[in-house]
Amino acid sequence: MLNLSGWRNFLYVLPAVLVYAVFLLFPLLASLGISFTEWDGTSLPVFSGVSNYLRMFSDPVFWIALGNNAILMLFYTLLPIGVGLLLCSFLYDTRNNSERSVLRILFFLPYIMPMAVLGVVWRWLYNPAFGPIDQILRAIGLPQLALSWLGDFTWALPAVGLVATWYFFGFCLVLFMAGLQRMDPSLLEAADLDGSSRRQKFMRITLPG
């Protein structure tokens, strides 16, 4: 009976395992194997050892691309987590439950919107001719800061990364607020009685929790 139950459980997860193996694991392993060959896509692949990797590491474009990816990873991971954590702590300290609920929905809203819609909106915001960002800069007397954000070699990458941070930090905020709601309120009350500052409460209670 125990063996039958084990086989039944295995059959339950088998479809997911097959999908993972066919569409993720097999292409990954196949790509790894092809990387050690010379192959034009039509003839038979010829084993070439690590020559492809040596050529890749000696290509300066590879290191530029790697640096750009590292910058984007900063905007996609560390900044959303940091902004979400700090904003969550601020809202938890300064807003009541109803206000936090409304703000949480507003901040999370971009995460559930279609990416195509967000792309159109941010392309309009960054438009150098009629986008509101450049129009505001010109209106306040800073026309030298009005740029073609997505066409500038210096600012294109941060401009795209900023959109990613704006998109993901709401998701991080919701996760952190869910964690704070499970925190024992008596810890913060005791810290208030001891005269702890917001920074001290954040570093010693909120962040470890």
From TrEMBL:
A Pfam family recorded for this sequence: BPD_transp_1
Boundaries of every ABC transmembrane type-1 domain copy: 66-209
PROSITE patterns, per database record: ABC_TM1
Any single Gene Ontology cellular-component annotation: plasma membrane
Transmembrane spans: 12-36, 61-90, 102-125, 155-178
Compartment annotation: Cell inner membrane; Cell membrane
GO biological processes: transmembrane transport
Membrane topology: Multi-pass membrane protein
Alphabetized UniProt keyword annotations: Cell inner membrane, Cell membrane, Membrane, Transmembrane, Transmembrane helix, Transport
Family statement: Belongs to the binding-protein-dependent transport system permease family.
Protein name, entry field: ABC transporter permease subunit
